[in-house]
Protein backbone atom coordinates (compact mmCIF):
# COMPACT_ATOMS: atom_id res chain seq x y z
CA UNK A 1 0.00 0.00 0.00
CA UNK A 2 1.40 3.38 -1.01
CA UNK A 3 0.37 5.60 1.91
CA UNK A 4 1.29 8.76 -0.03
CA UNK A 5 -1.67 8.21 -2.38
CA UNK A 6 -4.12 8.74 0.46
CA UNK A 7 -5.16 12.37 1.01
CA UNK A 8 -7.82 14.35 2.80
CA UNK A 9 -10.08 13.98 5.83
CA UNK A 10 -13.41 12.31 5.02
CA UNK A 11 -16.57 12.24 7.08
CA UNK A 12 -19.51 9.89 6.63
CA UNK A 13 -22.44 12.35 6.63
CA UNK A 14 -25.15 10.21 8.16
CA UNK A 15 -28.69 11.07 7.07
CA UNK A 16 -31.94 9.38 7.99
CA UNK A 17 -35.11 10.04 5.98
CA UNK A 18 -33.39 12.91 4.18
CA UNK A 19 -32.36 14.73 7.38
CA UNK A 20 -28.71 14.97 8.36
CA UNK A 21 -27.94 13.55 11.80
CA UNK A 22 -26.26 15.83 14.38
CA UNK A 23 -23.17 13.60 14.36
CA UNK A 24 -22.46 14.61 10.74
CA UNK A 25 -21.92 18.23 11.84
CA UNK A 26 -19.90 17.20 14.91
CA UNK A 27 -17.57 15.10 12.74
CA UNK A 28 -17.18 17.95 10.25
CA UNK A 29 -16.15 20.24 13.12
CA UNK A 30 -13.42 17.81 14.19
CA UNK A 31 -12.43 17.06 10.60
CA UNK A 32 -11.79 20.80 10.06
CA UNK A 33 -9.23 20.79 12.92
CA UNK A 34 -7.50 17.66 11.66
CA UNK A 35 -7.46 18.92 8.07
CA UNK A 36 -5.94 22.21 9.16
CA UNK A 37 -3.13 20.33 10.97
CA UNK A 38 -2.51 18.18 7.88
CA UNK A 39 -2.94 21.13 5.45
CA UNK A 40 -5.58 19.28 3.50
CA UNK A 41 -9.34 19.56 2.95
CA UNK A 42 -12.55 18.05 4.31
CA UNK A 43 -14.83 15.83 2.24
CA UNK A 44 -18.29 14.69 3.34
CA UNK A 45 -19.62 11.42 1.92
CA UNK A 46 -23.38 11.57 1.55
CA UNK A 47 -25.13 8.27 0.84
CA UNK A 48 -28.88 7.88 0.26
CA UNK A 49 -31.70 8.37 -2.21
CA UNK A 50 -32.55 11.89 -3.38
CA UNK A 51 -30.11 13.45 -0.91
CA UNK A 52 -28.04 15.71 -3.16
CA UNK A 53 -29.92 18.74 -1.79
CA UNK A 54 -28.21 18.25 1.58
CA UNK A 55 -24.78 19.19 0.17
CA UNK A 56 -25.21 22.92 0.92
CA UNK A 57 -25.92 22.17 4.59
CA UNK A 58 -22.72 20.14 4.77
CA UNK A 59 -20.81 23.00 3.16
CA UNK A 60 -22.24 25.41 5.73
CA UNK A 61 -20.71 23.25 8.49
CA UNK A 62 -17.25 22.84 7.00
CA UNK A 63 -17.25 20.45 4.03
CA UNK A 64 -15.00 21.61 1.17
CA UNK A 65 -16.23 18.77 -1.05
CA UNK A 66 -19.26 16.50 -0.94
CA UNK A 67 -19.23 13.10 -2.64
CA UNK A 68 -22.84 12.05 -3.22
CA UNK A 69 -23.80 8.43 -3.79
CA UNK A 70 -27.45 8.70 -4.73
CA UNK A 71 -29.46 5.64 -5.70
CA UNK A 72 -33.02 4.39 -4.99
CA UNK A 73 -31.38 1.27 -3.50
CA UNK A 74 -30.01 3.50 -0.74
CA UNK A 75 -33.32 4.97 0.42
CA UNK A 76 -33.19 3.28 3.86
CA UNK A 77 -30.06 2.15 5.64
CA UNK A 78 -29.15 -1.45 4.87
CA UNK A 79 -25.79 -2.85 5.77
CA UNK A 80 -24.69 -4.31 2.46
CA UNK A 81 -25.56 -1.55 -0.04
CA UNK A 82 -24.22 1.16 2.29
CA UNK A 83 -21.02 -0.83 2.95
CA UNK A 84 -20.59 -1.27 -0.79
CA UNK A 85 -21.17 2.46 -1.37
CA UNK A 86 -18.76 3.73 1.29
CA UNK A 87 -16.06 1.11 0.59
CA UNK A 88 -16.25 1.99 -3.12
CA UNK A 89 -15.83 5.70 -2.36
CA UNK A 90 -12.75 4.89 -0.25
CA UNK A 91 -11.23 2.69 -2.96
CA UNK A 92 -11.89 5.33 -5.61
CA UNK A 93 -10.88 8.52 -3.76
CA UNK A 94 -8.33 7.19 -1.20
CA UNK A 95 -8.88 9.30 1.93
CA UNK A 96 -6.12 9.59 4.52
CA UNK A 97 -8.67 9.67 7.36
CA UNK A 98 -12.26 8.37 7.38
CA UNK A 99 -14.53 9.31 10.30
CA UNK A 100 -17.89 7.68 11.02
CA UNK A 101 -20.26 8.45 13.92
CA UNK A 102 -20.57 5.78 16.62
CA UNK A 103 -24.34 5.77 16.16
CA UNK A 104 -26.38 2.58 15.70
CA UNK A 105 -25.83 2.95 11.93
CA UNK A 106 -22.14 3.89 12.20
CA UNK A 107 -21.35 1.02 14.56
CA UNK A 108 -22.73 -1.34 11.95
CA UNK A 109 -21.24 0.38 8.92
CA UNK A 110 -17.75 1.42 10.12
CA UNK A 111 -16.28 -1.99 11.01
CA UNK A 112 -17.64 -3.64 7.86
CA UNK A 113 -16.22 -0.92 5.65
CA UNK A 114 -12.83 -1.10 7.37
CA UNK A 115 -12.73 -4.87 6.81
CA UNK A 116 -13.79 -4.42 3.17
CA UNK A 117 -10.98 -1.95 2.46
CA UNK A 118 -8.49 -3.90 4.64
CA UNK A 119 -7.62 -1.26 7.20
CA UNK A 120 -8.03 -0.93 10.98
CA UNK A 121 -10.78 0.89 12.88
CA UNK A 122 -10.75 2.39 16.35
CA UNK A 123 -14.28 2.30 17.72
CA UNK A 124 -16.10 4.81 19.93
CA UNK A 125 -13.36 7.45 20.09
CA UNK A 126 -13.68 10.37 22.48
CA UNK A 127 -10.65 12.32 21.24
CA UNK A 128 -8.81 12.63 17.93
CA UNK A 129 -5.64 14.55 17.14
CA UNK A 130 -2.70 14.59 14.78
CA UNK A 131 0.65 13.65 16.33
CA UNK A 132 3.65 11.37 16.38
CA UNK A 133 3.37 7.60 16.89
CA UNK A 134 4.45 5.69 18.91
CA UNK A 135 4.03 8.34 21.61
CA UNK A 136 7.19 7.10 23.39
CA UNK A 137 9.31 5.31 20.77
CA UNK A 138 11.65 2.51 21.78
CA UNK A 139 15.34 3.14 20.94
CA UNK A 140 15.93 2.26 17.29
CA UNK A 141 12.22 2.23 16.49
CA UNK A 142 11.00 4.73 13.92
CA UNK A 143 8.49 7.34 15.08
CA UNK A 144 6.00 8.28 12.36
CA UNK A 145 4.72 11.84 12.10
CA UNK A 146 1.30 13.26 11.29
CA UNK A 147 -0.58 10.18 12.40
CA UNK A 148 -4.20 10.18 13.56
CA UNK A 149 -4.07 9.52 17.31
CA UNK A 150 -7.39 7.99 18.30
CA UNK A 151 -8.26 7.96 21.99
CA UNK A 152 -10.99 5.89 23.58
CA UNK A 153 -11.84 4.29 26.93
CA UNK A 154 -10.63 0.68 27.13
CA UNK A 155 -10.99 -2.29 29.49
CA UNK A 156 -14.53 -1.35 30.48
CA UNK A 157 -13.58 2.28 30.96
CA UNK A 158 -10.84 1.55 33.48
CA UNK A 159 -8.12 2.99 31.26
CA UNK A 160 -7.81 5.35 28.31
CA UNK A 161 -6.03 4.02 25.22
CA UNK A 162 -4.49 6.01 22.37
CA UNK A 163 -4.39 3.99 19.18
CA UNK A 164 -2.91 4.69 15.74
CA UNK A 165 -2.97 2.96 12.38
CA UNK A 166 0.52 3.77 11.03
CA UNK A 167 0.81 1.16 8.26
CA UNK A 168 -2.60 1.23 6.58
CA UNK A 169 -4.90 3.79 5.05
CA UNK A 170 -7.40 5.20 5.59
CA UNK A 171 -7.04 5.70 9.32
CA UNK A 172 -10.60 4.95 10.40
CA UNK A 173 -12.46 5.81 13.59
CA UNK A 174 -16.01 5.81 14.83
CA UNK A 175 -16.61 8.79 17.11
CA UNK A 176 -18.95 9.03 20.06
CA UNK A 177 -21.92 11.35 19.46
CA UNK A 178 -21.97 14.50 21.60
CA UNK A 179 -18.20 14.66 22.15
CA UNK A 180 -16.96 16.76 19.20
CA UNK A 181 -18.16 20.30 18.57
CA UNK A 182 -19.65 21.49 15.32
CA UNK A 183 -18.39 24.78 13.91
CA UNK A 184 -20.61 27.87 13.64
CA UNK A 185 -22.72 27.81 10.51
CA UNK A 186 -21.18 29.65 7.54
CA UNK A 187 -24.18 30.99 5.60
CA UNK A 188 -23.90 30.71 1.84
CA UNK A 189 -20.86 28.38 1.90
CA UNK A 190 -20.61 26.15 -1.16
CA UNK A 191 -18.83 22.84 -1.58
CA UNK A 192 -17.65 21.10 -4.72
CA UNK A 193 -20.24 18.36 -5.30
CA UNK A 194 -19.05 15.11 -6.90
CA UNK A 195 -21.65 12.53 -7.91
CA UNK A 196 -20.38 8.97 -7.77
CA UNK A 197 -22.29 5.75 -8.16
CA UNK A 198 -20.48 2.43 -7.84
CA UNK A 199 -23.54 0.53 -9.14
CA UNK A 200 -25.67 -1.92 -7.21
CA UNK A 201 -25.78 -5.56 -8.21
CA UNK A 202 -28.20 -8.21 -6.89
CA UNK A 203 -25.36 -9.45 -4.66
CA UNK A 204 -25.47 -6.38 -2.54
CA UNK A 205 -29.22 -6.16 -2.01
CA UNK A 206 -30.01 -9.37 -0.27
CA UNK A 207 -31.96 -7.76 2.56
CA UNK A 208 -35.34 -6.32 1.71
CA UNK A 209 -37.04 -3.90 4.09
CA UNK A 210 -40.70 -4.77 4.44
CA UNK A 211 -41.73 -2.20 7.03
CA UNK A 212 -40.11 0.34 9.34
CA UNK A 213 -41.70 0.79 12.76
CA UNK A 214 -40.41 3.90 14.49
CA UNK A 215 -40.04 3.84 18.26
CA UNK A 216 -42.29 6.40 19.89
CA UNK A 217 -40.74 8.16 22.86
CA UNK A 218 -42.56 10.69 25.00
CA UNK A 219 -39.37 12.17 26.33
CA UNK A 220 -36.75 14.27 24.56
CA UNK A 221 -33.38 12.61 23.98
CA UNK A 222 -31.20 13.92 26.83
CA UNK A 223 -28.47 14.68 24.27
CA UNK A 224 -30.75 17.31 22.70
CA UNK A 225 -31.96 18.89 25.99
CA UNK A 226 -30.86 22.45 26.77
CA UNK A 227 -31.41 21.99 30.51
CA UNK A 228 -30.83 18.70 32.36
CA UNK A 229 -31.87 17.98 35.93
CA UNK A 230 -29.77 14.94 36.74
CA UNK A 231 -30.20 12.79 39.84
CA UNK A 232 -27.92 10.30 41.55
CA UNK A 233 -28.15 7.67 44.25
CA UNK A 234 -28.55 10.48 46.79
CA UNK A 235 -32.11 11.05 45.52
CA UNK A 236 -32.89 7.96 47.57
CA UNK A 237 -35.75 6.30 45.68
CA UNK A 238 -37.53 6.28 42.32
CA UNK A 239 -40.51 8.05 43.91
CA UNK A 240 -38.29 10.87 45.13
CA UNK A 241 -37.36 11.69 41.52
CA UNK A 242 -40.68 13.60 41.58
CA UNK A 243 -38.70 16.47 43.18
CA UNK A 244 -36.42 16.57 40.12
CA UNK A 245 -39.32 16.21 37.68
CA UNK A 246 -41.04 19.21 39.31
CA UNK A 247 -37.88 21.31 38.96
CA UNK A 248 -37.40 20.16 35.35
CA UNK A 249 -40.98 21.10 34.52
CA UNK A 250 -40.62 24.54 36.14
CA UNK A 251 -37.53 25.39 34.07
CA UNK A 252 -38.32 23.53 30.85
CA UNK A 253 -35.68 20.84 31.34
CA UNK A 254 -35.42 17.07 31.12
CA UNK A 255 -34.49 14.56 33.81
CA UNK A 256 -31.35 12.43 33.46
CA UNK A 257 -29.37 10.37 35.97
CA UNK A 258 -26.16 8.65 37.04
CA UNK A 259 -25.36 5.00 36.49
CA UNK A 260 -26.10 4.13 40.13
CA UNK A 261 -29.71 5.13 39.47
CA UNK A 262 -29.89 2.91 36.37
CA UNK A 263 -28.20 0.02 38.19
CA UNK A 264 -30.81 0.35 40.97
CA UNK A 265 -33.57 0.09 38.36
CA UNK A 266 -34.94 3.56 39.20
CA UNK A 267 -34.57 4.99 35.68
CA UNK A 268 -34.01 3.52 32.19
CA UNK A 269 -30.53 3.28 30.68
CA UNK A 270 -31.28 5.88 27.96
CA UNK A 271 -31.30 8.57 30.68
CA UNK A 272 -27.81 7.67 31.95
CA UNK A 273 -25.08 10.30 31.61
CA UNK A 274 -21.43 9.27 31.59
CA UNK A 275 -18.77 7.15 30.08
CA UNK A 276 -21.01 4.13 29.59
CA UNK A 277 -24.10 6.31 29.13
CA UNK A 278 -24.57 9.41 26.99
CA UNK A 279 -22.29 12.42 26.58
CA UNK A 280 -24.32 15.60 27.09
CA UNK A 281 -23.51 19.26 26.57
CA UNK A 282 -26.57 21.22 27.79
CA UNK A 283 -26.65 24.92 28.62
CA UNK A 284 -27.41 24.06 32.26
CA UNK A 285 -26.69 20.77 34.06
CA UNK A 286 -28.02 20.22 37.60
CA UNK A 287 -26.13 17.40 39.39
CA UNK A 288 -28.33 16.47 42.34
CA UNK A 289 -27.24 13.81 44.83
CA UNK A 290 -24.44 12.81 42.43
CA UNK A 291 -20.96 12.33 43.92
CA UNK A 292 -19.05 13.24 40.73
CA UNK A 293 -17.21 10.00 39.92
CA UNK A 294 -14.82 10.38 36.98
CA UNK A 295 -17.00 8.15 34.79
CA UNK A 296 -19.99 10.43 35.37
CA UNK A 297 -18.06 13.67 34.93
CA UNK A 298 -16.68 12.40 31.58
CA UNK A 299 -20.21 12.61 30.20
CA UNK A 300 -21.22 16.09 31.44
CA UNK A 301 -18.17 18.25 32.08
CA UNK A 302 -18.57 20.12 28.78
CA UNK A 303 -21.95 21.53 29.94
CA UNK A 304 -22.02 25.35 29.78
CA UNK A 305 -23.12 25.79 33.42
CA UNK A 306 -22.99 23.11 36.14
CA UNK A 307 -24.96 23.48 39.36
CA UNK A 308 -24.38 20.80 42.03
CA UNK A 309 -26.49 20.04 45.07
CA UNK A 310 -24.91 17.61 47.53
CA UNK A 311 -24.96 17.25 51.30
CA UNK A 312 -21.26 16.36 51.37
CA UNK A 313 -19.12 19.46 50.86
CA UNK A 314 -16.13 17.30 49.87
CA UNK A 315 -18.01 15.57 47.03
CA UNK A 316 -15.85 15.68 43.83
CA UNK A 317 -18.77 17.08 41.84
CA UNK A 318 -18.04 20.49 43.40
CA UNK A 319 -14.66 20.49 41.59
CA UNK A 320 -16.39 20.73 38.20
CA UNK A 321 -19.43 22.75 39.33
CA UNK A 322 -19.80 26.47 38.56
CA UNK A 323 -22.24 26.82 41.48
CA UNK A 324 -22.57 24.49 44.43
CA UNK A 325 -25.21 24.17 47.12
CA UNK A 326 -24.23 22.10 50.18
CA UNK A 327 -27.31 20.65 51.81
CA UNK A 328 -30.12 18.11 51.75
CA UNK A 329 -31.76 17.91 48.34
CA UNK A 330 -35.09 17.09 50.00
CA UNK A 331 -35.12 20.55 51.56
CA UNK A 332 -33.44 22.52 48.76
CA UNK A 333 -35.35 21.24 45.72
CA UNK A 334 -38.91 22.16 46.81
CA UNK A 335 -37.72 25.68 47.71
CA UNK A 336 -35.82 26.09 44.45
CA UNK A 337 -38.79 24.93 42.37
CA UNK A 338 -41.15 27.28 44.27
CA UNK A 339 -38.81 30.25 43.78
CA UNK A 340 -38.47 29.53 40.05
CA UNK A 341 -42.24 29.18 39.64
CA UNK A 342 -42.80 32.46 41.52
CA UNK A 343 -40.20 34.38 39.47
P1 LIG B 1 -22.88 7.90 44.76
O1 LIG B 1 -21.46 7.87 44.37
O2 LIG B 1 -23.35 6.92 45.78
O3 LIG B 1 -23.17 9.37 45.27
C1 LIG B 1 -24.35 9.79 45.86
C2 LIG B 1 -24.15 11.22 46.33
O4 LIG B 1 -25.37 11.72 46.84
C3 LIG B 1 -23.10 11.38 47.42
O5 LIG B 1 -22.13 12.33 47.01
C4 LIG B 1 -23.89 11.87 48.62
O6 LIG B 1 -23.17 12.81 49.41
C5 LIG B 1 -25.08 12.52 47.96
N1 LIG B 1 -26.30 12.55 48.79
C6 LIG B 1 -26.85 11.51 49.48
N2 LIG B 1 -27.99 11.91 50.08
C7 LIG B 1 -28.16 13.22 49.76
C8 LIG B 1 -29.15 14.20 50.10
N3 LIG B 1 -30.22 13.88 50.85
N4 LIG B 1 -28.99 15.45 49.63
C9 LIG B 1 -27.92 15.79 48.85
N5 LIG B 1 -26.96 14.91 48.51
C10 LIG B 1 -27.09 13.63 48.96
N6 LIG B 1 -21.38 6.35 36.50
C11 LIG B 1 -22.18 7.19 35.81
O7 LIG B 1 -22.89 8.04 36.40
N7 LIG B 1 -22.22 7.12 34.43
C12 LIG B 1 -21.47 6.23 33.72
O8 LIG B 1 -21.59 6.20 32.49
C13 LIG B 1 -20.61 5.35 34.43
N8 LIG B 1 -19.82 4.46 33.77
C14 LIG B 1 -18.96 3.67 34.50
C15 LIG B 1 -18.07 2.82 33.82
C16 LIG B 1 -17.19 2.03 34.55
C17 LIG B 1 -16.24 1.14 33.82
C18 LIG B 1 -17.20 2.08 35.96
C19 LIG B 1 -16.22 1.24 36.76
C20 LIG B 1 -18.07 2.90 36.63
C21 LIG B 1 -18.97 3.70 35.92
N9 LIG B 1 -19.86 4.55 36.57
C22 LIG B 1 -20.62 5.42 35.85
C23 LIG B 1 -20.07 4.48 38.02
C24 LIG B 1 -19.36 5.57 38.80
O9 LIG B 1 -18.05 5.13 39.11
C25 LIG B 1 -20.10 5.85 40.13
O10 LIG B 1 -20.21 4.65 40.85
C26 LIG B 1 -21.49 6.45 39.93
O11 LIG B 1 -21.42 7.56 39.06
C27 LIG B 1 -22.03 6.89 41.30
O12 LIG B 1 -23.32 7.39 41.11
P2 LIG B 1 -23.89 8.47 42.12
O13 LIG B 1 -23.02 9.68 42.11
O14 LIG B 1 -25.33 8.64 41.77
O15 LIG B 1 -23.84 7.72 43.52
UniProtKB/TrEMBL annotation:
<feature type="binding site">
    <location>
        <position position="233"/>
    </location>
    <ligand>
        <name>FAD</name>
    </ligand>
</feature>
<dbReference type="InterPro" id="IPR001308">
    <property type="entry name" value="ETF_a/FixB"/>
</dbReference>
<feature type="binding site">
    <location>
        <begin position="272"/>
        <end position="276"/>
    </location>
    <ligand>
        <name>FAD</name>
    </ligand>
</feature>
<dbReference type="InterPro" id="IPR014729">
    <property type="entry name" value="Rossmann-like_a/b/a_fold"/>
</dbReference>
<dbReference type="InterPro" id="IPR014730">
    <property type="entry name" value="ETF_a/b_N"/>
</dbReference>
<dbReference type="GO" id="GO:0009055">
    <property type="term" value="F:electron transfer activity"/>
</dbReference>
<dbReference type="InterPro" id="IPR014731">
    <property type="entry name" value="ETF_asu_C"/>
</dbReference>
<dbReference type="Pfam" id="PF00766">
    <property type="entry name" value="ETF_alpha"/>
</dbReference>
<feature type="domain" description="Electron transfer flavoprotein alpha/beta-subunit N-terminal">
    <location>
        <begin position="9"/>
        <end position="209"/>
    </location>
</feature>
<dbReference type="GO" id="GO:0050660">
    <property type="term" value="F:flavin adenine dinucleotide binding"/>
</dbReference>
<dbReference type="InterPro" id="IPR029035">
    <property type="entry name" value="DHS-like_NAD/FAD-binding_dom"/>
</dbReference>
<feature type="binding site">
    <location>
        <position position="310"/>
    </location>
    <ligand>
        <name>FAD</name>
    </ligand>
</feature>
<feature type="binding site">
    <location>
        <begin position="289"/>
        <end position="296"/>
    </location>
    <ligand>
        <name>FAD</name>
    </ligand>
</feature>
<dbReference type="GO" id="GO:0033539">
    <property type="term" value="P:fatty acid beta-oxidation using acyl-CoA dehydrogenase"/>
</dbReference>
<feature type="binding site">
    <location>
        <begin position="258"/>
        <end position="259"/>
    </location>
    <ligand>
        <name>FAD</name>
    </ligand>
</feature>
<protein>
    <submittedName>
        <fullName>Electron transfer flavoprotein subunit alpha/FixB family protein</fullName>
    </submittedName>
</protein>
<comment type="similarity">
    <text>Belongs to the ETF alpha-subunit/FixB family.</text>
</comment>
<dbReference type="Pfam" id="PF01012">
    <property type="entry name" value="ETF"/>
</dbReference>
<keyword id="KW-0285">Flavoprotein</keyword>
<keyword id="KW-0274">FAD</keyword>
<dbReference type="InterPro" id="IPR033947">
    <property type="entry name" value="ETF_alpha_N"/>
</dbReference>
Amino acid sequence: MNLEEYKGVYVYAQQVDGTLSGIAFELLGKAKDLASDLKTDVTAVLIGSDVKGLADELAAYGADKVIVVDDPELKDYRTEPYTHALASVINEYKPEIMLVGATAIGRDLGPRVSARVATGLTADCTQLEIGDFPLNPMPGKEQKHNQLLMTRPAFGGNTIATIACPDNRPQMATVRPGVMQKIDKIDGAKAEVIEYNPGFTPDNKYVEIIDIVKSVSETVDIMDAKILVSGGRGVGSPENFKLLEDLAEAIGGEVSCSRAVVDNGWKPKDLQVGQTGKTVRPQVYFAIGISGAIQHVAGMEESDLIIAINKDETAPIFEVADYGIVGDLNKILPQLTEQIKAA
